[in-house]
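Bench log, entry 3. Co-assembly request; chain sequences pasted below exactly as received.
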Amino acid sequence: MNETRSAPMTARMTGPLLVLDHLAKNYGALKVTDDVSLTVGATELHAIIGPNGAGKTTLIHQISGLAQPDSGRILFAGEDITPLTMAERAAEGLARSFQITSILPDFSVLENVALAVQGRSGSSFRFVRNASREEALNAPARVILNQFDLLPRADVPAGLLSYGEKRQLELAIALATRPRLLLLDEPLAGTSHEESARIIATLKGLKGTLGILLIEHDMDAVFQLADRISVLVYGRIIATGSADEVRNNPEVRSAYLGEEAA
Amino acid sequence: MTDAARPVEQSVPAAAPASLRRIMVPIVVFAGLAIAPWIAQFGTESFILSLLTRVMVLGLAALSLDLLIGYAGLVSFGQAAFIGIGAYAVGILASHGINGIALQTAAALAASAIFAAITGAISLRTRGVYFIMITLAFGQMLFFLATSLAAYGGDDGMTLPSRSLFLGYDLLDSDRALYYVAFVTLGLVYLACRMLVASRFGRVLRGARQNPVRMQAIGFSPYRYQLVLYIIAGMIAALAGVLLANTSEFVSPATMSWQRSGDLIFMVVLGGMGSLHGAILGAIVFLLAEEVLAGFTEHWHIIFGPLLILCVLYIRGGITPLIERTRP
Amino acid sequence: MPLSLFLVQMLNGLQFGLILFLIAAGLTLVFGVMDFINLAHGVQYMVGAYLAAMFTALTGNFLFGLLLALPTALAFGLFLEVLIFRKLYERDHLDQVLATFGVIITLNEAVKILWGAAPLSVPVPEILSGSIPLIGGLRYPIYRIAIIVAGLAVGLLLYILVNRTKVGMLVRAGASNAPMVAALGVNIRLLFTFVFGFGAMLAGFAGAMVTPILSVEPGMGDNVLILAFVVIVIGGIGSVRGAFLAALLIGVVDTLGRFMAPMLLSAILDPSTASQTGRAIAPMLIYVLMAVTLCIRPAGLFPAKR
Ligand SMILES: Nc1ncnc2c1ncn2[C@@H]1O[C@H](COP(=O)(O)OP(=O)(O)OP(=O)(O)O)[C@@H](O)[C@H]1O
Ligand SMILES: [Mg+2]
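Structure output for the full assembly:
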């Protein structure tokens, strides 16, 4: 499961796709990110688990550029992206989903995805042609919608989707930017059984084609999908390793199960 | 995947007749404006023509503001400043003997683009209510600049020596010709704006209005697009200013007073924002109401003000959606 | 330039700044606590001035005029709040801007109908007339000093009220996080009304105070309103301290600018060009100041919201 980690996909890139180098951030007295270092390989699926309030979302915010770390560096494909804005990082191939669904509610489902395709296909300083009739944008968008069984809903305003459908749209938008690294913040939360099965299947299909940093509370899904798992507690990574290593780590057991290892 | 999870699906096909009515409104508005001069000859022609020319010119300015408010969510309270730039470009150049409309328009567009680039670059760094106040302040700055231009009439403004010349000919001296110049300009700009808002560029702006963070996450930084739009809107308003100066043959700081900016916002909201022709409709209703009320009493503001308040409180969404929703 | 002339201009700037502060304080609190942008705040200033002028004429005494004008201005502010503004708190800023713009249009006209379009003037009260000597033989009007003293006193009072009392604590908390304060069971509506009335009264007070030195006329609140916006944008929305410092800054820069720009320019330009350009540049100075502040600190000098 771990042998794909340093696949030599691009010539100049030999190290991991994403490197967090001693990242730290405080909210007042709260150390929300406490000296976090971790890596994600170019085709690795690296999961982060941890109790509520551990700082998982804040970590994703810092990687995607929505929040700035107080100290430390973020390297993406060997380049220091810490000073880049969120949009610039996205243009480099870093996509994310949000824990709290973040879509464009007035646009149709198709347009939500087509706009994400537009973000990676040439300049958007084009003023004349009707963008919603550009097949070059719509065709790839339909392919992705089909993957999530959302194609029949393509013309519905995204704001009218059910919660589970919105979660899938969220993922479809992130994928439509053709990312090299996907940051997923609890993609399964609140989805129905069938929906989460479909999302897990999609993630399995994606595995090995790009790097994924997955935050998820659903342990079954994490143990099925992840190449490596890191455990984040109070802003600190207390363990990293394969599913079995993490499962048997005494510190993890005490953090999760309290009394058992105390 | 129960049916309950898809609550409003069936309402979508019902949108078709509404979209028909959506094209009807601009068609009726423009057709009405096209034949108005023919009707006007049966009344006090010059009065009607000049009123309707003013309607179209301010409609053009309101159109530019609708781009900002209705499509990008940028409530600018300084749009009248750009009308002023256009009007003063005509006035200042004319007072130096440069009467060609091409040159005057070019100067107006260049000056407004520069002013928009500078003030927009600063204003767009802020959000919401800061943006409202800052655009208001920049508009005021230009207003005071105009009042201090003693060489160009200061507070009182200046009368144009003549209307602009077209390739050296005084074509615009005919009210009817000026009317149709304003009409064609408005029509062309309207069509261009229609394209603009549906284009890739417009889609980015509409997206950023709904959810700027999502837009950044897929690689767009809204600031650049908003700045370009701010410049475009400024130039359109300056174009309106060029026409306004020719319509009234007079230029004064009052052209860019902050009340005028407020009027423009009202036109946009009254007509229904985010539809473009709504802004034009708003300008028509606004100026006609002003004209009618002013016929009743010199203190017409005392009626107009409360009407404005009532409109905001009770007609949400403006006139255009009302028309589009009513069954024929 | 003679030092005493400079001193006079500094005092004028201070006096102007303090008047701006009285207006801006209410505006910034109302916005900070209620997220409500009230263009009609300048109207309160005008109403205060007209009321003071009317009551002074009726009673023949400026002090009585002032004392009657204050509660009337307060009552009028609360009347508007209940009649119109209350319906706007839940609306977006665009609706608030438009509706309060409508209030301005209406009241400017109403004032015209009630008192005529011609400016009114109010004599300087007997005890505060005259002037005191400054250095260099120049004198300074006592009444303007009285404005400075009153402005500083209100500033101090506000400081104590906002920083040392329970209501003030709620107002500050409301300015940084209104939903939280509401969640803690505070009657936020009542707090709103209180803050609103208080702000309206301060603006009315400012209007009343300037009646002996400025002409009372329709629309007199409009320009002051925009200056107050500049003040609270520079000071940081919701911050009384920011409003105080920014108001003084704007008052002094504007006054000195108008006075000194032509003078400084005459060093490099011929006198008539210098005075012309000087007069053109001076009114723009405060806007440039605002632009520069925003470039450095987009949320103003003392942002209250996080
Ligand atoms: N902007 C902020 N300001 C102050 N504190 C914050 C901020 N954002 C998050 N926090 C705090 O930081 C801590 C970590 O929050 P975060 O959302 O990153 O946790 P999480 O691991 O994603 O939790 P969950 O599993 O519930 O999603 C929490 O205690 C939260 O209250
Ligand atoms: Mg989280």
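Residues 1-12 of chain A have pLDDT under 50 and may be disordered. The CA atoms of residues 62 and 217 of chain A lie 20 Å apart.
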